[in-house]
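Input.
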Amino acid sequence: MHRLLLILALSVSIYSCKPEPKTAQLPATEQVADQGRDSIPFLWEAANIYFLLTDRFRNGNPENDLNFDRVNPTGPLRGFMGGDLAGITEKIKDGYFTDLGINAIWFTPVVEQVHGDTDEGTGNTYAYHGYWAKDWTALDPNFGTRDELAELVAAAHAKGIRILMDVVLNHTGPVTGEDPAWPESWVRLDPTCNFEDYQGTTACTLVENLPDIRTESSEAVVLPDALLAKWKAEGRLSEELDELQVFFDRTGYPRAPRYYIIKWLTDYVNDLGIDGFRVDTAKHVNEDAWSELYREAAYAFQSWKRKHPGKVLDDTPFYMVGEVYGYGASSGRDYDFGDRTVDYFDHGFKSLINFELKSDAGQSYDRIFEKYSTLLHDDLNGLGIINYLSSHDDGSPFDPDRSKPFRSANILLLTPGASQVYYGDESARGLVVEGTVGDATLRSFMNWEELDSLPEKQEILAHWQKLGQFRNHHPAIGAGRHKRLASQPYVFSRTYTDGDYRDKVAVGLDLPEGPKSLYVRGFFGDGTVLRDAYSGSEATVSGGRVELDTPYPIALLELAD
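Output.
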């Protein structure tokens, strides 16, 4: 352990003391062409996903910053701050995500939120985070318009980037002075979940005053009068009722609460070509509802593809990843409630968010990589996980003080599985904000000014960009089989094969600066010309080794064109 800590300390020291790296990288459009983008298959199990809070990323349209008279004072970082869909689109178009090697974007929900504020014991709060729905059929004007959402999806697809929409089926927004509870036939207001067993996790309110949708019920209900009045005032009552009639006639579902919401959520897929859902609070809903959501979303996705053949990226099916809070990849397919287990992979989910990597991150690189490669090719073969080191609601992130941004990138972007880059991971955005209470400290506004002005932030970003692009160009990193080639210096390989497609790479970490010799015998044959994607230099394998002379403690080896 002492030796490991010494190695880590030296690694951090090397990164922090070296000069800002030269960016030996082509413009994003040339890079993609150089790597033969059309020939690289997209794999959700190897995706590099960027997760952001819509309200906290970028303010692209200041004119939509205030709506519904949301002017009451709030606790620190608990009010709207101006981020919106236009801001995300701006960064898509200017290549920010492409330069990071991002091939999927997940943003927090943008449906219309409760208008009022409430205090859950952590300070007065508005629904800036997007998880307090008031009307699933409309977008919240603080986030933008439906046209702006359509533009975002189109801009992302034009760059080869998929869109994950964050969806909530478990609950409405809280009751406030402006937002009454939905009818009792739709929601329960008690008991509060005790998390002791399945019933105490699913048939309950997640927290006090968060009305829980009766997702287990198949009893038909009528639409709330307040919602009907809202639609009428907005001039779309007949349209919404007609669409619901068509949906229920086609599916044969009873008009139970969950089926209304499933219809409303999948409309975004049918209309805009959303590529996948990130499902919030998955373990708090009867799992059968997720099978039904996936069925309807997949139907909607195929319908959109048929209507827009010229806009289809490829034949990748609709994707759904679940937030089963506390799930760890080591538990395999099953989540244990204490009195029963549930296999969420058997209920529409291709992947689950893995809450385990942040705890593994203190181990050696090879122990981490070997663990996840084994899990994904054994118990989870054919399925996927999304790894993360920090997020919007995990109060125990890896490296909360951002002292190890380079190691964080190495772990997150090189560990088998899909990667979730939380906004600001790549720029060491602070995760500890004085005066905040609870998860608000994780949700400061994106640190664009620091990124524009501080060389140390730009150096961190350059490192994340190089690793991210390498990951995006090589499915073997996330979906391939891992093998250690050498311990000193540490070199490993990844290989991915699917039919005629084969991808193989080797990576060296904790390397000496300057001249270095990487052992690749048995993986790359003598005479093979390799390119180090990190430095841009090339070398030929000789005697089972690659000799490089670069100022970096990392090498990303791929076959030279």
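The longest strand covers residues 490-498.
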